[in-house]
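Dear colleague,

Thank you for sharing your sequence with our group. We've completed the structure prediction you requested, and as agreed, I am returning the results in plain text so they can be pasted directly into your records. Please verify that the sequence below matches your submission; if there's any discrepancy, let me know and we will rerun it promptly.
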Amino acid sequence: MGSVRTGDRLPPLEIEITRTLIVAGAIASRDYQDVHHDAELARRNGSPDIFMNILTTNGLVGRYITDHFGPTAVLRKVAIRLGTPNYPGDTMVLTGTVEEFDGDTATVRVVGDNGIGRHVTGTVTVTVPMQGAR
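Please find the predicted structure tokens below.
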């Protein structure tokens, strides 16, 4: 993995939170709860609008890591916790810091903030095979 070191910061990734992203993520993960696709029912349940489900957030966190470490990166463990919801019209900014690096495996602390607070916190363990290794 070359020059990865404990303490390295990954560049931020800004993700626009659109209705389409929220609904598509819910459908792709087979999460048909109304709060992820029906704004009126979401409001009846006390939410100001539809909001992103955890599986979509999990996928975006995984994308953030693999975008950084490249196409050979293998996610070994993703452990996240949600905070404030991701609503349409907002932007989530993912940032990460390498907490540990050993051989070809890194543990990265990831946070994602939006306009109302911290949406996600967690750690990702990723392995990147050394070039030429099989």
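Summary note from our side: The longest helix spans residues 54-69.

Kind regards,
the structure core
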